[in-house]
Write a structure and sequence with these properties.
The chain is α+β, with helices and mostly antiparallel strands. It has two domains: 53 residues; 72 residues, no CATH class. Strands 4-3-2-1-5 form a five-stranded antiparallel β-sheet, with no helix packed on it. It has a two-stranded antiparallel sheet with strand order 6-7. Helix 2 packs across helix 3.
Length: 140
């Protein structure tokens, strides 16, 4: 459905509902149908915003934002002290070294992926991150 905002000679502002090029009905600004116009009228806006009464009752769902970020954006989520602690721990813990190597080899980081979440959970389990920091990294 398309809408055209019109002004009548008797000073009323109305909508014309247009479908396939034909006027289906004429409405007040509140959405009430009015009889066929017998007074002169002219177009105020050929493409106005859809009137509120014509909008669906249920709002259109917002798209889910992508949670894919660059490797640098992901690294910047960590403080310098966290990075230093992770690199220091990697010298003695092969699993942390593998995690760092995997991070270095990827192009982007998907914050919603199981691999990312498991990696951060591993850092929590070895005491390099708190649960609160893990949540901040994933949600900020």
């Amino acid at each position: 459905m398309q809408y055209i905002l019109i002004q009548t000679a008797d000073d009323r502002t109305l909508y014309q509902e247009i479908e396939r090029g034909f006027v289906q009905r004429i409405c007040t600004l509140e959405g009430d149908t009015v009889p066929q116009l017998t007074v002169p009228h002219w177009v105020l806006d050929a493409n106005p915003p859809q009137p509120s009464w014509a909008l669906p009752d249920t709002p259109v769902p917002m798209p889910i934002p992508l949670m894919i970020i660059s490797k640098l954006e992901f690294r910047n989520k960590f403080t310098f002290n966290e990075k230093a602690a992770i690199y220091t721990a990697a010298e003695a813990n092969v699993a942390i070294k593998v995690w760092l190597d995997d991070l270095a080899s990827c192009e982007q980081v998907d914050l919603l992926s199981a691999q990312t979440q498991q990696g951060l959970q591993f850092l929590v389990s070895v005491g390099l991150l708190s649960e609160a920091r893990k949540a901040e990294i994933l949600n900020a």
